[in-house]
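User: What would this chain look like folded?
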Amino acid sequence: MLRERRTFGRPDRCPPCARVPDQATRVTSAGGGPRLRSPGSIGLVRVSTRGDYACRALLSLALHGGDMPTSVRDIAERTGLPQPYLEQILLALKGAGLVRSKRGVGGGYVLARPPDKLTLGQIVAAVDGPIVVGDFGEPHAGGACNHEGQCALLAVWAEVGEHMRAHLDSFSIADMVQRVGGRPLEPLAGPVAG
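Assistant: Here's the prediction, encoded as structure tokens.
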């Protein structure tokens, strides 16, 4: 599900990432409905903080990890993400089969699939659930629409959700590695503490 993304007041960490464009459509989930920032402005479609952090963590693994496990602490330090929250996210990603973990000395996380087989849509869905515009339900079958216009709009909301899913699925972690600098970075030297 899509939720509002928060920057947690860290524009000093990544100024271009903290800036938000002024035009797009903001959509919230869980029946929250669309909310505009102010009259006449158009909001943004936003991935949740959890979805953003999950994508950043897996990108970090692709950039640095290779086949060597990377500790949560190292991922948190490199990405600037809060370690306790990152631990929860990585457990969800492990449950979805997107990462594997190794316990003990030299333990940590590695990607469970090649970076070109992991899409942003898969990652966001793994931590947030299905990517949808809202929790509006499905159109009625057989033209049995009980409320004026409801079924037509429900079909549109379903199409918008599908477009968002397809767009996020069009980007792999390998694509993000290319955007960062063209190739994965070398793994850290020495054993990785768990």
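The longest helix spans residues 150-169. If you want, I can go into more detail on any region.
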